[in-house]
Design brief:
Distance between the termini: 31 Å
CATH topology: Acyl-CoA Binding Protein
Structural class: mainly alpha
Number of domains: 1
Radius of gyration: 13 Å
Oligomer: single chain
Shape: globular
CATH class: Mainly Alpha
Order of helices and strands: HHHH
């Protein structure tokens, strides 16, 4: 396992132990970075208008299309770290 993979795994654990729930936009960023780092570019069909949360998640992930997995993992780790420090919302 590479160093970024270890940090990514630790950040996944750390995010579940945050004392405050992040705002919705931050949650979308976490979701999109996690998916891009784990699975790569967005997959599947875009949810319909009746699935608003699914649509926003899909769009957030799709916005990262082409981002290398290691870059997404690094950004996820940095975001979780900033949340733990209280720097982000």
């Amino acid at each position: 396992m590479t160093e970024i993979d270890q940090q990514f795994a630790q950040a996944q654990n750390d995010v579940t132990q945050l004392t405050e729930r992040p705002g919705n936009l931050t949650l979308l960023r976490l979701y999109a970075l996690f998916k891009q780092g784990s699975l790569g570019d967005v997959q599947g069909d875009k949810p319909g208008f009746t699935d608003i949360a699914g649509k926003y998640k899909y769009e957030a992930w799709a916005a990262l299309k082409g981002t290398p997995a290691d870059d997404a993992k690094r950004r996820y780790v940095e975001l979780v770290y900033s949340l733990r420090r209280g720097d982000a919302d």
